[in-house]
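Sequence only, no structure available. Ideas?
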Amino acid sequence: MNRLLFSILFLLLLPATVLCQKVTYSDYEQEDSKETNFEIIGKMNGNFLVYKNIRWRHKINIFDDDMKIKETIKLDFIPDRTFNVDFVIYPTHFFMIYQYQKKNILHCMGVKMDAEGKKIGEPVELDTTHISILADNKIYSTIYSEDKQKIVVFKIHKKYESFNIVTLLFNNNLKLIANKNRQSLEFNDRRDTYDNYLVDNEGNFIFTKDSKNGNRDNSNALTLITKDPLQDTFAFHDIEMKNNYIDEVKVKIDNLNKRYIINSFYYKKNRGSIDGLFTCVWDKVNTKIFTQGFTVLNDTLRDEAKTSGQLRFALDDFFIRQVFVKKDGGFLLTAEDFSSQRSGNSNSWNRWDYLNNYYYSPYSSSSYYYNPYYGYYRPYGGFNNNQSTRYYYSNIIVLSADKNGKIDWSKVIHKDQFDDNDDNFLSFSNMNSGGQIHFYLMMIKIKIRSSLTIVFQLRES
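Reply:
I predicted one. Tokens follow.
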């Protein structure tokens, strides 16, 4: 939940044109501050609903089309020490799923709410967990299928060399449709990464595990883990890396063709430069790999995508952002050039350190964390360091692949965005309108955040 997301929503509602654009902003509320978290719930009955959280206060602002507040709904039923608030949105209502701690017990709750931000019935308890005093209390996560008919609430405990995961599968009325399932997996926190927790339209719960030989290496082993809604155990599907290395694995569910599309940039050498794109398409029906391959990204694309330096380093700062599934089983993939530089720091940009949580934030004495499931986030805190950080968000690569994972065309969208100590207004957002993918960007000029939006449209070929 950040200011970029808040700004992008209203930009997405504009007509896709470069001739004339109108941007409407909401007024700044007096109590808004750096500690304010918010999430855009959506548009219902002609109103925009925005959830806000300031310390232990929770509310929903109702905006009209001119972004004027019509009503503020205080969520007084939410207890103190509530966190991890998630939303599942439908045309006329939504579910708010949240957890709170009371003494040494975590409560995971769900409540149905209408388009006016009012409760429909009382909150129901979905699950509870006993924790120790020093244990991590943010253990519940919520995901839902593309058609929103299946909702999964899951919790993860990482302890010593075990990875314990509990799943609960609900229907679109938040009714439990499968017994609570508990699994314990082997886990080495220096070498293993569990990620990409997703649920398909049939209720299959999936995620990935990638592993490396040493804690300073890239991953050279990948496993797709699946669980049928009626099964009590996970199924493990090892994917051959053919002596290549990967990082930041991304999975997209293709519900229409009943496949799981796995992508990652790959390296021929451990901790080398990115050579190309690894793609694996898993056939869910036949429980086997449909296609798999390592595609070298050629020098023509590298030359157009790079902002400086040699061609072999041109892709090292690119991170996969989005994957869009085509009806025929192909997909569009977008990746963005991202880097940063601290003032007075002569060390070069290090992709490995960034992906493994070794990047300093000027906002806090803590690290600037990267988590592939949650994205980029930093714990807010006081400015306790005189050094500044400049964030760079540069070119975008768009790759189009057919159903066999073969890249049939590519395009580079050129942009140059940067800001100091704050990247909330950088990067881009996408909107899929069928045969077109729209790219929306916020531009910054000389410390002034401009409301100008650049819109690119790409037709699937």
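DSSP finds three helices and 31 strands in the chain.
Hope that gets you unstuck.
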